């Protein structure tokens, strides 16, 4: 089976969020299952071709409503995965960031969809490679299912399409004028017309794809309701039978405390009680906090955004730090108001809190390995990777019961830890965070045997892509079968 994943982000070339982690690692897991999985990505100007060994593959002229564009397709095999990087001035090739202004992003990602369709022709003619399935990801590539269905010819009629929703909050709405300017045909799908979604890019992808997936089972249910799915909730609910909730995986070779070079002391699920503590001491030293093993260290590694629930956490942290022993280390950047609030915690509780308002991949790993509690109080979380990384490194997550957090963290049973991998609260209230944090601190201080049982259990969980890749393969097979039946009727 041949599968092309189209995306705006993919590690190691371009990353803003979790989308890059998925598209960068899923194809490798699929290839280990015998799938010829490849990735189509914009050839951003900041990608260092020499560093990655990127080479020019082919060039072609692409005629579209706005003119004729010269498109160059570059190719590179990274960790055995073929990547195609597309450049075409002025859309892609000179920029210093993945995303720009909303109106320009609309124009250039619509072009990326159009040029990807043309590039499939070119790959077929030049290399004899044409996919069986096109896997679109988020709104940036969501036009592909529609354009495939609008294309004539038997080969295209048999081409199946799926779309993955990584975060339904970003939909590419109000695209009508940009679609008209680009010469995109009218979208006359009954559900889109009836729900007023003909100009919503993600909605278009959901309506026209053969199957739809999202990044956790719980989130697949949540987005069928307006509180999580917003304007797309009715459309997603209508496609419930075609929806698959597939939990993201981790690159367990990269995220392995037994081999991670960023740690001062490596460890595994057997020796962590003695081998993990040096990492906590190192983190405390780096953060200029007292070197104490008897006090719980709470870690945060996150984009500092409203979605992440820090409006709930900040008052709770301030109250708890004022009332009892604990330490806090924050790493992240984001909304100025949230950054400022964490900086103020640093200033007000200098002997207990330290805020690193920056991006630092090595420090992130040291926080996972050094903290005792990993705080992730999200209002919504499609999947979440931080809680998985924390558990793999022996930190117990404190999370809200939502999306992928609910699917991956089992609440402590409040006894001898016959069950549990963390601490879970439900209500979107600061008091819920505060009460749960007090509970976690009580367990850390008074039930170390139960704490260590949860650590060992968490570290042994298989968060690899193996299971998830098998579910994606099953989805592709179902999409192909569905497409074959539909093509026979057309």
Keywords:
alpha/beta; Rossmann fold; nine-stranded mixed β-sheet; six-stranded parallel β-sheet; 15 strands; 17% strand
Brief rundown of the structure:
With 490 residues, the chain is of the alpha/beta class. The chain is built from 21 helices and 15 strands.
Which overall shape is indicated by the principal axes computed on the Cα atoms? elongated
Largest sheet: 9 strands, mixed
Can you identify the CATH class of the largest domain?
Alpha Beta
Structural class: alpha/beta
The first-to-last residue Cα distance is 23 Å
Q: What's the quaternary structure here?
A: single chain
Known CATH architecture of the largest domain: 3-Layer(aba) Sandwich
CATH H-level name of the largest domain... which superfamily? Glycogen Phosphorylase B
SS summary, helix count: 21
Mean pLDDT: 96
Number of strands: 15
Which range does the strand content fall in? 15-25%
* CATH fold-level name of the largest domain: Rossmann fold
Contiguous uncertain segments of 5+ residues: none
- Strand sequence of the main sheet, in spatial order? 3-4-5-2-1-6-7-8-9
Describe the protein.
The chain has 490 residues and is α/β, with parallel strands linked by helices. It folds into two domains: 2-249 and 466-489, Glycogen Phosphorylase B (Rossmann fold), CATH 3.40.50; 272-462, Glycogen Phosphorylase B (Rossmann fold). The protein contains 21 helices and 15 strands. The strands form two sheets. A nine-stranded mixed beta sheet has the order 3-4-5-2-1-6-7-8-9, with helices on both faces. A six-stranded parallel beta sheet has the order 12-11-10-13-14-15, sandwiched between helices. Helix 1 links the parallel strand 1 and strand 2. The longest helix has 26 residues, at 102-127. The protein is elongated and about 70 Å long. The two termini are 23 Å apart. The mean pLDDT is 96.
């Amino acid at each position: 089976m041949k599968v092309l994943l189209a995306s705006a982000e993919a590690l190691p070339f371009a990353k803003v969020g979790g989308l890059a982690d998925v598209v960068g690692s899923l194809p490798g897991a699929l290839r280990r299952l015998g799938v010829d999985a490849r990735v189509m990505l914009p050839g951003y100007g900041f990608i260092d071709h020499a560093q990655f060994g990127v080479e020019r593959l082919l060039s072609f002229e692409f005629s579209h409503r706005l003119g004729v564009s010269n498109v160059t397709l570059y190719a590179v095999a990274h960790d055995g995965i073929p990547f195609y990087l597309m450049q075409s001035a002025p859309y892609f090739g000179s920029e210093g960031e993945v995303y720009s202004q909303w109106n320009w992003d609309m124009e250039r990602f619509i072009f990326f969809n159009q040029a990807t369709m043309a590039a499939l022709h070119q790959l077929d003619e030049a290399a004899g490679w044409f996919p069986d399935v096109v896997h679109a990801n988020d709104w940036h590539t969501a036009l592909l299912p529609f354009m495939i269905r609008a294309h004539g010819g038997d080969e295209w009629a048999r081409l199946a399409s799926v779309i993955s929703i990584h975060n339904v909050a970003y939909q590419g709405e109000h695209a009508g004028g940009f679609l008209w300017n680009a010469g995109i045909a009218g979208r006359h799908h009954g559900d889109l017309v009836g729900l007023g979604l003909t100009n919503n890019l993600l909605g278009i992808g959901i309506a026209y794809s053969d199957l739809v997936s999202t990044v956790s089972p719980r989130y697949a249910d949540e987005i069928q309701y307006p509180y999580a799915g917003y304007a797309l909730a009715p459309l997603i609910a209508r496609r419930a039978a075609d929806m698959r909730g597939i939990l993201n995986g981790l690159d367990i070779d990269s995220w392995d405390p037994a081999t991670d070079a960023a740690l001062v002391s490596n460890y595994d699920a057997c020796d962590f009680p003695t081998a993990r503590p040096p990492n906590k001491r190192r983190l405390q030293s780096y953060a200029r906090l007292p070197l104490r093993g008897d006090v719980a260290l709470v870690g945060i590694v996150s984009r500092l955004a409203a979605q992440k629930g820090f409006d709930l956490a900040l008052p709770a942290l301030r109250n708890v730090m004022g009332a009892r022993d604990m330490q806090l280390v924050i790493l992240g950047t984001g909304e100025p108001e949230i950054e400022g609030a964490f900086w103020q915690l640093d200033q007000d509780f200098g002997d207990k809190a330290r805020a690193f308002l920056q991006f630092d991949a090595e420090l992130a790993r040291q926080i996972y390995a050094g903290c005792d509690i990993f705080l992730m109080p999200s209002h919504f979380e499609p999947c979440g990777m931080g809680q998985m990384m924390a558990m793999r490194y022996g930190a117990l997550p404190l999370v809200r019961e939502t999306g992928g957090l609910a699917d991956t963290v089992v609440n402590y049973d409040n006894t001898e830890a016959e069950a549990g991998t963390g601490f879970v609260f439900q209500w979107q209230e600061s008091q819920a965070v505060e009460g749960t944090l007090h509970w976690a601190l009580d367990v850390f201080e008074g039930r170390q045997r139960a704490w260590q049982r949860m650590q060992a259990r968490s570290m042994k969980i298989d968060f690899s892509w193996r299971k998830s890749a098998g579910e994606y393969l099953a989805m592709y097979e179902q999409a192909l079968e569905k497409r074959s039946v539909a093509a026979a009727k057309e």
